[in-house]
Amino acid sequence: MSKKILVLPGDGIGPEIITEAHRILDWVIADSGVAIEVEEGLVGGISYDVHGEPLTAETLKAAQASDAVLFGAIGGPKWDGTVAYDKRPEQGLLDLRKGMNAFANLRSAVCFPALADASSLKREFIEGLDILFVRELMGGVYFGEPRGIETLEDGTRVGLNTQRYADWEIERVARVAFEMARKRGSHVTSVEKANVMESGVLWREVVTKMGADEYPDVKLDHMYADNCAMQLVKNPKQFDVIVTDNLFGDLLSDAAAMLTGSLGMLPSASLSDEGPGLYEPIHGSAPDIAGQGIANPIAAILSLAMALRYSLDMGGYAEKIEAAVANVLESGTRTVDIMADGCTKVGTTGMGDAILAE
Ligand code: NAI
Ligand code: MG
């Protein structure tokens, strides 16, 4: 049976970086002989301009019918404040995640050895760093009801959000974390604030039971979220897989991303139980550099590698791509965001060429 990837380049630098990932995908198809059908679609601002919606029902259907979606980035000043709130480009991504039931967001913070000196941090502190965040993406305080802004009888106004987690929501994301850990360092750190939050108490209880019953071979630690923030800055190499809720995962994974240097380096995956995964760089549409041909395509290319590994059962090709990226960086080929003394500066296409050649 042939496989299918839906490619959604989006706005700003999205099309520029996705073009390079697409070239590498074409090479994978040719080299492996695996029949992968690649379809392209519109999402975000460009979809709004053409269809009046940031995500059309047809595009969502095509996403649901694929094995993986490779997504670029969306948004930009053109649409900021000029389109209705529920039609803004960013809504297209939220609707896509929801429509694909993508509840587990995987983000890695990996430090390539060649870039260990490019960071403002000391080499021994980050060299070899390889953390995988598994962030719950469909629940928690960003979505919990009740929510809103209320005016009380005495005129006081109250902004209200609700942190709410059901046991099955915790179970399904914890399972992803344990399964990932088995393929990596066999160590899960579960992060909440069970000291002050009821949702954290339940979180810890559910994860502890799953670990003991189903994953006794995986080392499990628990950590309060505030301590985790401190530990990420103090000794980040202690972590393998970190599983946490939507809010803490948002903050902690953004902070950890910066341990490794440029936003242009970091891929992500959003997975459901069954059905396709959504793969995208963690950066946005970078309007400040769009159209100049200088964006770093590595995050997009590594997102493709994740798609091959997690949704297409082609982990061998994911490893080849990751090794090619490491070798190209080692050889001193750099886009401007990761440029260092003595290295050769290339643009988006030049970086794609170098990785393809490798
Ligand atoms: P951003 O990630 O687009 O850019 C932040 C900074 O990082 C900029 O200076 C940019 O030039 C640089 N940068 C980002 N990706 C890069 C790459 N591949 N190579 C080299 N440099 C890179 O975040 P910002 O500026 O906050 O948002 C810009 C637009 O993107 C907004 O409309 C925002 O809503 C949207 N956005 C979309 C996301 C998505 O599609 N998933 C995620 C975050 C923001
Ligand atoms: Mg964030």
UniProtKB/TrEMBL annotation:
<feature type="site" description="Important for catalysis">
    <location>
        <position position="193"/>
    </location>
</feature>
<feature type="binding site">
    <location>
        <position position="107"/>
    </location>
    <ligand>
        <name>substrate</name>
    </ligand>
</feature>
<dbReference type="InterPro" id="IPR024084">
    <property type="entry name" value="IsoPropMal-DH-like_dom"/>
</dbReference>
<feature type="binding site">
    <location>
        <position position="226"/>
    </location>
    <ligand>
        <name>substrate</name>
    </ligand>
</feature>
<dbReference type="GO" id="GO:0003862">
    <property type="term" value="F:3-isopropylmalate dehydrogenase activity"/>
</dbReference>
<dbReference type="GO" id="GO:0005829">
    <property type="term" value="C:cytosol"/>
</dbReference>
<keyword id="KW-0460">Magnesium</keyword>
<keyword id="KW-0963">Cytoplasm</keyword>
<dbReference type="GO" id="GO:0009098">
    <property type="term" value="P:L-leucine biosynthetic process"/>
</dbReference>
<keyword id="KW-0560">Oxidoreductase</keyword>
<comment type="similarity">
    <text>Belongs to the isocitrate and isopropylmalate dehydrogenases family. LeuB type 1 subfamily.</text>
</comment>
<feature type="binding site">
    <location>
        <position position="97"/>
    </location>
    <ligand>
        <name>substrate</name>
    </ligand>
</feature>
<feature type="binding site">
    <location>
        <begin position="284"/>
        <end position="296"/>
    </location>
    <ligand>
        <name>NAD(+)</name>
    </ligand>
</feature>
<dbReference type="InterPro" id="IPR019818">
    <property type="entry name" value="IsoCit/isopropylmalate_DH_CS"/>
</dbReference>
<keyword id="KW-0432">Leucine biosynthesis</keyword>
<dbReference type="InterPro" id="IPR004429">
    <property type="entry name" value="Isopropylmalate_DH"/>
</dbReference>
<feature type="binding site">
    <location>
        <position position="135"/>
    </location>
    <ligand>
        <name>substrate</name>
    </ligand>
</feature>
<keyword id="KW-0100">Branched-chain amino acid biosynthesis</keyword>
<dbReference type="GO" id="GO:0000287">
    <property type="term" value="F:magnesium ion binding"/>
</dbReference>
<keyword id="KW-0479">Metal-binding</keyword>
<comment type="pathway">
    <text>Amino-acid biosynthesis; L-leucine biosynthesis; L-leucine from 3-methyl-2-oxobutanoate: step 3/4.</text>
</comment>
<comment type="subunit">
    <text>Homodimer.</text>
</comment>
<keyword id="KW-0520">NAD</keyword>
<feature type="binding site">
    <location>
        <position position="250"/>
    </location>
    <ligand>
        <name>Mg(2+)</name>
    </ligand>
</feature>
<feature type="binding site">
    <location>
        <position position="254"/>
    </location>
    <ligand>
        <name>Mg(2+)</name>
    </ligand>
</feature>
<comment type="function">
    <text>Catalyzes the oxidation of 3-carboxy-2-hydroxy-4-methylpentanoate (3-isopropylmalate) to 3-carboxy-4-methyl-2-oxopentanoate. The product decarboxylates to 4-methyl-2 oxopentanoate.</text>
</comment>
<feature type="binding site">
    <location>
        <position position="226"/>
    </location>
    <ligand>
        <name>Mg(2+)</name>
    </ligand>
</feature>
<feature type="domain" description="Isopropylmalate dehydrogenase-like">
    <location>
        <begin position="4"/>
        <end position="355"/>
    </location>
</feature>
<keyword id="KW-0028">Amino-acid biosynthesis</keyword>
<keyword id="KW-0464">Manganese</keyword>
<dbReference type="GO" id="GO:0051287">
    <property type="term" value="F:NAD binding"/>
</dbReference>
<protein>
    <recommendedName>
        <fullName>3-isopropylmalate dehydrogenase</fullName>
        <ecNumber>1.1.1.85</ecNumber>
    </recommendedName>
</protein>
<feature type="site" description="Important for catalysis">
    <location>
        <position position="142"/>
    </location>
</feature>
<dbReference type="Pfam" id="PF00180">
    <property type="entry name" value="Iso_dh"/>
</dbReference>
